[in-house]
Design a protein that fits this description.
By secondary structure, the protein is mostly beta strands. It contains one helix and 14 strands, in the order ββββββββββββββα. The strands form four sheets. Strands 1, 3, 4, 8, 9, 10, 11 and 12 form an eight-stranded antiparallel β-sheet that branches.
Amino acid sequence: MKEVPKLSDFPVGKPNDAYAKYFIGQSWLAPLTTEQVPTYNVTFEPRCRNNWHIHHAQKGGGQMLICVYGRGWVQLEGEPAHELKGGEVFNIPPNVKHWHGAAKDSWFQHLSLEVPGEGTSNEWLEPVTDEVYDKLP
C-alpha cells in the first residue's frame, strides 16, 4: 500500500477499493458525514482520475467539489477541462457527464458533496483515456 503524505486536516480514509474499477490510479475515500448532505473526502495520487460519470436526478441533485489540497481537473462533457486549486468550489449540475482527478504532478484532495434530490442515481461510464488526459497542461 502506498503511503499518502499529510495533505490536509481531513482524513485520507481507506483505499477506494469499492470504486477502483472506475478510477485510473489509486484513490482513497473518507466518509465525513452521511447526514443531511453526504460528504466525502477523496484523495487522488498524481495522474489519478475517475471515469466519466453522470449524477442523475429527476429533481435537484448534482455534485459539488471543494478542493482542499493540490491541483486537479474537472471536465464537463463538451467543455474544456477546468483546473481546480485549493479553496476552489466547483458545482456540477445533475444529468451532466463529467470526470475529475489529480493533475499529473500533484496530489489532490476534494470534498465531494452529493446534492440531495429526487430520483438520484450515479452512472459510471468509460475511462478518461491517457490520450485525452495527457493533453492537459
